[in-house]
Amino acid sequence: MSTAESFIVNLEEVTVDTKTEIFTAIQLIYGIPSLAMLIMCFILIFFGKNYGNSFYFLVRFDLLTNICVYLNTWIAIRLEMHPNTVFILKAIESALPGSLTIFKYIPYFFFHMHFWTSALLTAHRLSSVLFIYKYEAFWSSWRNRIIMLIIIFICSHLPKYLWTGWLFEVYIVNDALICYNFPDALKDAYKVVGFFSIVYAITNLTMGLLTACLVSKKLGSKSTNNVSRKLTRVAISYSAAYFFELLWSVINSVNSYLNFLPDSIVEIDINLLVFASDGFTLSLPYFLLAFDVNVKNDLFRKTKTSTIATAVAISI
User: Disulfide engineering: 156 pairs with which of 21, 91, 112, 256, CB 3.0-4.6 Å?
Assistant: First the structure.
């Protein structure tokens, strides 16, 4: 365990208020079907025959990342808010000692990875306009893909070295699940997140606007460019969703200095942060359904086939 100044929380003695219970119920209502959509779209695009375009490799990577992000938020943040679910965390820590310490760091890792996953989709569409005859070969190269993924993982982890040690450490002590919180490291981490939120927001907005303008100008409304325009709409919509997630991080960071948010908002800050994260994490399947005809047709065809098969089985 770190020797830095810390305070201890016994996770088995947490209490839950009505607001948290209501927020959790809402998160489950939209979260369960949205997680199912993430998984279905990932399987569909992974095995489907209509998704040979290199853009869909990035979509698969995004979908898989978002599945991991969403599941990790339950382990790292949400379950510990509820006394009745802490036993799940204790079971995980018993089976894999030290794992909860890592799980509680991973949201900060995914904060940075979310920028890269969003930026790559936008960069792909930007390159399809600027390098119309070369972009597909570049994005289809497995060597380039592996290099990009390695760079993303490294860049998503490097900001951790801007603060010292872990932000939280979780252990089982005397048969109790204990979380050590390190306020100095947390304060530094919040500053890092605030700084990168501003950088990412500006970069994301610039790339999104540039892509939208260039695609609109160069592709026009010709029917031969329908596929390209639809993929671009997916990328830009996804980029916009990410921008709004960042907006809450920026507001939070500014509030840590100016304290302009009312106490009623600050009290539910963690829940609002989770909602903001979910708004981006769970959004991609809906953008695909809205703008990608292949996904819409394949998904509803499979759903319809499954429904018919079930009805036949029941009638038999």
Answer: 112
